[in-house]
Design brief:
Helix content: 10-25%
CATH topology of the largest domain: Beta-galactosidase, Chain A, domain 5
CATH class of the largest domain: Mainly Beta
Number of domains: 3
Distance between the termini: 30 Å
CATH architecture of the largest domain: Distorted Sandwich
Structural class: alpha+beta
Number of strands: 39
Radius of gyration: 26 Å
Length: 698
């Protein structure tokens, strides 16, 4: 249901502008609807700058704005404010799937036209939208006489953070080998060089913020470069030739975003990124189906199966049918199969040009499997690994998607395994070029995958992706993506993900959108071949404390991650026998949905712990997930989110008294108790532990 309300400039002039009586103002002010966030835009010294405050506390100090061009004059100095326009907007729109069904888009808008006395390229507009949870701004460059094609070298955009010596941040470095798949660091601002976004900080005045971008289309991805203490400059990812953006007038940049909250959980409850994207362009998307699936995947990471052909080949007709039987038994929607198509033998990561996306290995019968899936009510989930050879995939995309459509495949997991800056593109002259995952070229390739899939009513789950910028609103078949260190790093990563990793993700990577992390491993010590069971580790604490390849959580935390780490599609990744060996704990995974009516972060601190409560979409049950870092803690939870006057059975899966991720990760207590709105629960979380609760309405 849409409830749009628009107000013209005269109605809100006094609220949004410091100077309203003149056509040209030196300083303009835009306020959030609740008047807590204030943005100032100024043309002092003929240089556009902006500032941001939260209840008069500085969040962003005076920061430059502008664009650098290869051949045209830069949009930097000599610009003055020529005219302004303002509006207010209040609308409630619905997500076809998501963390919550209804999203409120309430903001005040300020458009500032800037101009200089230098022809021919001399005007552009800065557009600001100010929400109660932050701001977004972008550059809009219209057609101008004599200027058509333009090449942007970089942006002058700055984010100047106050009191940098006392403020701290949680971040991963930019332009590093492994794309976004790095361990998040916590440091003082002064210790940061280059960082990817979302970039989360807690200022010395206690304010929390996250810098990111929204609606990244036909443009280069933005990273942050700290050039002076506290001065973070936008740094655009270039093409192979050094140019960042190749475009033509008129064009619009992505939104530069700053989410703002006095408390850490305020960032988690923000819808700003989604609200800065355009509405659904696909029309009816009832064919986009959230759900849970099992995968022939984890066994490949731990060596039980292989992607390549041979005696241990995982993608076989027989094994796929077995997994379909398992999925049908427990009500899961599909089976992901990796390694089915030719090209996996040998060093596949370095030879992406040999992949075929229509030719299966002889032991994988696509027709037989799809027919069997129809019989048992389980769908095949497709997989395409490109090894970063974008042109090879581009050339086969239509045929590959046609093949999957023919066999009833509704979701495809795509992969772009390649080191950062090493995506292969064959140009119009047949030359091989190397591009970045987050450069303009690949931004277009990822979107082409999504739009081509949509023509066939197929959804895309992108791995090794460009970062999420909220485009799932515009293209709802972009159902999930990776874009951070996933569960597989616990199988072979050096080091594996540390205990605090998933907590860190909620306050950083997850601010941009859903992540296909693949929680739910039950054999937590799969790589410990020296001991018969976990009790043996208690006699070898030194070995247990090493960074060995195992799951650095308790079993309860693996359950809680299904609620905490949002994705509309969740894998049930472990080997089927490991779930059936622990049926009581497995019941939570069987029950937990992936699509939500409401979601609310109700407690937490960045990198330390987090608690989410979510209501099942179209139902009355609630689910709660709580996770902690390496520190054990007790968390008191008020159940005010429950419906008044109703009684619920709290089905609680929590860490036992002796639970410890290193020495006793399987200690799990399952208990039931009646609860109602206004009650509270105290949840003891072990080291790298968690709690998962289903509140079943009685």
């Amino acid at each position: 249901m849409l409830n749009p309300k628009y107000f013209s400039f005269p109605a809100i002039c006094l609220m949004t502008l410091t100077v309203c009586q003149t056509g040209i103002a030196k300083t303009l002010t835009a306020m959030s609807p609740d008047s807590r966030i204030k943005v100032e835009v100024s043309d002092d010294n003929d240089q556009p700058v902006y500032r941001v405050f939260y209840q008069n506390k500085p969040v962003i100090q005076s920061s430059k704005l502008g664009l650098y061009f290869k051949e045209s004059p830069d949009f930097l100095n000599g610009f003055n404010i020529q005219s302004t326009a303002t509006a207010s907007h209040d609308e409630t729109w619905q997500q076809p799937w998501g963390e919550r069904r209804e999203v409120q888009d309430q903001h005040n808008q300020l458009s500032v036209q800037l101009k200089r006395n230098k022809a021919p390229f001399n005007t552009y507009t800065l557009k600001f939208k100010v929400f109660n949870d932050g701001i977004g701004f972008r550059y809009e460059v219209p057609k101008q006489p004599g200027i058509n094609q333009v090449e942007i070298i970089n942006e002058a955009t700055e984010f100047v953070l106050p009191n940098s010596s006392q403020s701290e941040a949680w971040w991963i470095g930019a332009k590093q080998f492994n794309r976004y798949e790095h361990i998040y660091q916590k440091s003082k601002l002064a210790e940061i060089d280059r960082a990817n976004t979302p970039f989360t900080a807690r200022l010395a005045n206690g304010m929390h913020l996250s810098i990111h971008e929204a609606a990244l289309i036909d443009y280069a991805g933005m990273t942050l470069d700290q050039q002076q203490p506290g001065v973070f400059k936008a740094n655009l990812t270039p093409w192979f030739d050094g140019v960042a953006v190749k475009t033509q007038t008129d064009f619009k940049s992505p939104w530069r975003t700053i989410q703002i909250a006095p408390q850490a959980i305020g960032l988690l409850n923000s819808d700003l990124i989604l609200n800065l994207n355009e509405p659904n362009k696909l029309g009816d998307v009832s064919w986009v189906n959230p759900g849970k699936y099992v995968g022939i995947w984890w066994g490949m990471h731990i060596g039980t199966h292989t992607w390549g052909s041979g005696d241990k080949h995982g993608a076989t007709t027989e094994l796929t049918k077995n997994y379909m039987d398992f999925a049908a038994k427990y009500g899961f929607d599909g089976v992901l199969v990796e390694g089915w198509n030719t090209g996996w033998d040998g060093d596949w990561a370095a030879n992406g040009e040999i992949f075929s996306f229509t030719q299966a290995y002889p032991d994988f019968d696509l027709t037989q499997i799809s027919e069997y899936g129809k019989k048992v009510g389980v769908k095949l989930i497709g997989h395409h690994e490109t090894s970063g050879h974008a042109s090879n995939y581009h050339n086969q995309m239509a045929d590959a998607y046609d093949l999957y459509e023919k066999h009833g495949v509704e979701q495809i997991k795509t992969g772009y395994v390649a080191s950062a800056g090493n995506i292969t593109r064959i140009d119009e002259n047949g030359f091989e070029r190397k591009e970045w995952h987050d450069g303009q070229f690949m931004v277009g390739e990822y979107l082409k995958s999504v739009t081509e899939a949509a023509k066939r009513k197929i959804s895309i789950n992108t791995h090794e992706p460009v970062k999420d910028t909220g485009l799932r609103r515009t293209y709802p078949n972009w159902i999930s993506r990776e874009g951070a260190r996933g569960q597989e790093f616990n199988a072979w990563g050096q080091p594996p993900n540390p205990p605090e990793h998933t907590v860190m993700l909620t306050y950083t990577r997850m601010l941009s959108g859903p992540m296909d992390f693949t929680p739910g491993i039950f054999d937590l010590t799969f790589n410990d071949k020296r001991e018969a069971d976990i009790g043996g580790l208690q006699d070898d604490l030194q070995a247990a404390k090493r960074y060995e390849n195992r799951i650095p959580t308790t079993l309860a935390k693996q359950l809680a991650l299904y609620v905490v780490l949002y994705s509309p599609i969740q894998m049930v990744p472990d080997l089927p026998e490991n779930y059936e060996a622990k049926p009581d704990a497995f019941q939570f995974i069987v029950d937990v949905p992936t699509d939500w009516e409401k979601s609310e972060a109700i407690a937490g601190e960045v990198g330390e712990y987090v608690v989410f409560a979510r209501q099942e979409r179209g139902g009355e049950d609630w689910y709660l997930g709580a996770i902690t870092d390496a520190n054990a803690r007790k968390v008191s939870i008020n159940l005010d989110f429950l419906k008044a006057g109703e009684t619920y059975q709290a089905q609680i899966y929590r860490d036992g008294k002796e639970a410890d991720w290193q020495t006793n990760p399987y200690d799990l207590i399952i208990e039931n108790k009646p609860v109602k709105k206004g009650d509270s629960l105290i949840l003891p979380l072990a080291t790298s532990g968690g709690a998962a609760i289903r509140f079943k309405k009685l």
